[in-house]
Amino acid sequence: MKLWGGRFTKETNQLVHNFNESLSFDNKFYKEDIKGSLAHVKMLSKQGIISEEDCSSIVKGLHSILEDLNSGKLDFDPQYEDIHSFVEGVLTERIGDAGKRLHTGRSRNDQVALDMKLYTRTEILETRSLIIDLLNTIFKTMEENVHTIMPGFTHLQKAQPLTLAHHLGAYFEMFKRDLGRLEDCYSRMNYCPLGSGALAGTTYPLDRDFTAEQLGFFGPTLNSMDSVSDRDYLIEFLSDLSLIMVHLSRFNEEIIIWNTNEYRFVEIDDSYSTGSSIMPQKKNPDIAELIRGKTGRVYGHLMSLLTTMKGLPLAYNKDMQEDKEPAFDAIDTVKGCILLFTGMLNTIKFNTERMRESAEGGFTNATDAADYLVNNGVAFRDAHGIIGALVLKCIELNTSLDKLPLEEYQKISPVFKEDIYDAISMETCVSKRNTIGAPGYDAMEKVMKINKEFLDNIPDAPKN
Q: What residues are labeled active site?
């Protein structure tokens, strides 16, 4: 069943139909299609384009279709080309000729543009909610680990001591930016394309402002050609999802490393781990690895859509049908990854003693030893060389800076006194760093307060 045919004298080849149809995947937004149709028909009645009687009949018919699809009483019929023809066809079967008036003043071009926007808008809000849950989980873990000392790394080499709260705070900032990007995307795309027709509007006296208001948009789009050919908002959303996956993948990479026998910083809960079919001792971080692996899948969908859109002339082209399957899969993949990761993080156990032990054993206080010399009048470049020599001595003696005897310090520089040990203790190394954004306890207290206020003042989601 098609919404066209009068110009054709032959039936569509079955292979062509199968290649052309989209009902097998665009049935995913049947609710959005019916929601848009309800707003459209109410506007048609308000404007006197169709009768109130026809409007009432169409509204009742659309609600009955929605109810039957929701309950499973009605199945999608593959003879229809797409969700639009399916809804209109079933409607006409149920209410007669009044159903044929539903499509007055619109095209499938502006209809599918509306459906995709309504669907994307809802998915942005659902993703936003999942990111907020993740931010709250990260913040809770930070609160519990403000004094948990661990090594910080550059190049995967131990660098300087910091706290687990500070380390997790880096991811809090990443996902906070992700939240902002989702909100920006929502604001930019929240304009209604319905009423744009195929590409040049319509001669019917539509009230596009009324339709936009009924559907919760800020207003109507302002160019009919752009309205039906715009997929910027979807590319932007997939880009936002790709960045979310960047951050999830980085976080999971660290958890995978921390979970190794060599690090033993974390223990992943049994409910988020799997075993080996041959090695009974194994407890594998498969969820973290799968999230890391699915990142490439989401990137691929973004590149697919960018490539589809890059050479399309105005206005609508059938190529745009290729936006749906990649978008649907990317959205579902990212939502599932955020949900699983939040659950894993919420149940993970941090081996705080092992983290501290690792920080103490990796010369992470070498920079502070150099600062000690600078504070006692030694030029930094000279101090850098002195501490390098001390590190070499520690390696020779198989010890650490905080356990190296004072006499060994003084052999290399007489500036060292007994207070060197307090200056390079893990607590001192962390607590002295109190510029805003640093891991010092005073600085972290300020940042935690800012983060708490941020979480407490996230606005409620818009009502679609």
A: 155, 276
